[in-house]
Amino acid sequence: MANSMRLFLAILAVGALALSSSGCSADAEGMNGNRRRGSTANQWDRNGLGNRGMQEAIPVEAATPWRADLASYVFGNANIEALREVEIVARVSGLLERMLVEEGDVVRQGQVLAELDKSELKISLEESKARLGNNRNVFERSKQMIERELISQEQLDRAKFDYETALAQYERAALNLQYATITAPFSGVITQRLVEQGDMIRVNTVLFNLADTDKLRIRLHVPEKEMGRIFVGNPVRIETEMLPGEHFGGVVEMIAPVVDPATGTIKVTVQVTEGAEKLKP
Questions:
Q1: What is the pLDDT of residues 234-271, one digit of tens each?
Q2: In sequence order, what are the beta bridge partners of 86?
Q3: What is the largest CA-CA distance in the chain?
């Protein structure tokens, strides 16, 4: 099940910042203040205002500007997804004889997850093996007989066809027996088990869902007007309601080349780079 995520795409822009603060040295302020007050007092006296127009000067201090990074954010909600997630289906029919994993189990590529009853499949393999041996013998004898002109070319072609058909049937029977053992196509976590031991399984029945959770990705749909500030490689700050107060890192991996005409948004794919072990798809 996907978790609702709040994503912040950090778009860094360089700008100049200047800091100013109140309060300056008493000596400098006093000297400047006296000069200002003296000059202002004379002006007010000439205007007939006297002391009524005098006001205290506001102390200020100048600071040297410096450059710093300014971060603007585009945010939204999305779901965490595994890099790969597949449904493992049965490729042959049969009774589910052994169930070897449960939901949440970490499995490696090629590990056996379940086994179907193989009794009938083994019988089919033996039958096809016997048929293959017989047709191979017939074909070999036919090649010898055609050299002595004891059979026609048509009979040789028929023997060859029967042999090749029997070979294909044998290979199919061997493959079906192999399919009765269900294995993991890649390493990951069993996220769902959809059958029970003893179930009668049909071809294409979904048995498990398997996800590769070592690498996680997040797809976010961003309004087109915000795309001028988003680029591949931008850092991403990730928060989830499942882990309040914690932050995780990511990076913009892909940006869709087209706008969704229905929503006016563009799909942005984020790869989780920090904290993937705590997040769940």
A1: 888 888 877 888 888 889 999 999 999 999 999 999 99
A2: 210
A3: 144
At 42 the three-state DSSP class reads helix
Q: Check residue 73 and give its pLDDT.
A: 72
Half-sphere exposure of 190 (CA within 13 A, CB side): 24
Alpha carbon separation from 240 to 76, 191, 267, 268, 280 (Å, rounded): 12, 20, 20, 18, 10
Rounded to the nearest angstrom, the gap between the alpha carbon of residue 79 and the centroid of all alpha carbons in its chain is 10
CA distance 87 to 210: 6
Contact assessment for residue 254 and residue 218, using Cβ atoms and an 8 Å cutoff: no
Q: Report whether 108 contacts 183 (CB < 8 A).
A: no
Phi, psi of 237 (to 5 degrees): -100, 125
CB proximity list for 95: less than 8 A, separation 6 or greater: 116, 117, 198, 199, 200, 201
User: 3-class DSSP state for residue 31?
Assistant: helix
- How does DSSP assign 142-156, residue by residue? HHHHHHTT-S-HHHH
35: number of CA atoms within 13 Å, CB side?
Answer: 5
**Listed residue (140, 136, 128) closest to 164, CA to CA:** 136
| C-alpha to C-alpha distance for 44 and 50, rounded to whole angstroms | 6
Q: Is 174 exposed, middle or buried (0-12, 13-18, 19+ CB in 10 A)?
A: middle
For 134-173, write each residue's pLDDT tens digit. Answer: 999 999 999 999 888 898 999 999 999 999 999 999 999 9
Encoded amino acid at 173, one letter: A
Write out residues in the chain with pLDDT < 70, as ranges: 1-56, 63, 66-72
